[in-house]
Design brief:
Blueprint (H helix, E strand, L loop, with lengths): L1 E3 L2 E3 L7 H7 L7 E5 L2 E3 L14 E6 L6
Pfam families: ThiS
InterPro entries: Beta-grasp_dom_sf, Mopterin_synth/thiamin_S_b, Thi_S, ThiS/MoaD-like
Organism: Secundilactobacillus mixtipabuli
Length: 66
């Protein structure tokens, strides 16, 4: 089972990262993806397959401040 931000996600395995993010309607432009402790760069999303037992962390950046 794939873990995404600490939550099990059965449907994620077998997809590439880009397809997975698009299905979640994730804000790709403001997102950092870490796969098993390694940051995956945007040009690699389509070539990187999510495998069973992978751990994904999706980190969004939000603008703000004073």
């Amino acid at each position: 089972m794939v873990t995404v931000n600490g939550e099990p996600q059965a449907q994620a395995a077998g997809q590439d990262i880009l397809t997975f993010l698009q299905a979640r309607q994730a804000p790709i432009d403001n997102l950092v993806v870490e796969l098993n402790g390694t940051i995956i760069h945007r040009p690699e999303y389509e070539q990187t397959l999510i495998k069973p037992d992978d751990k994904l962390e999706l980190i969004s950046f939000v603008g703000g401040g004073r």
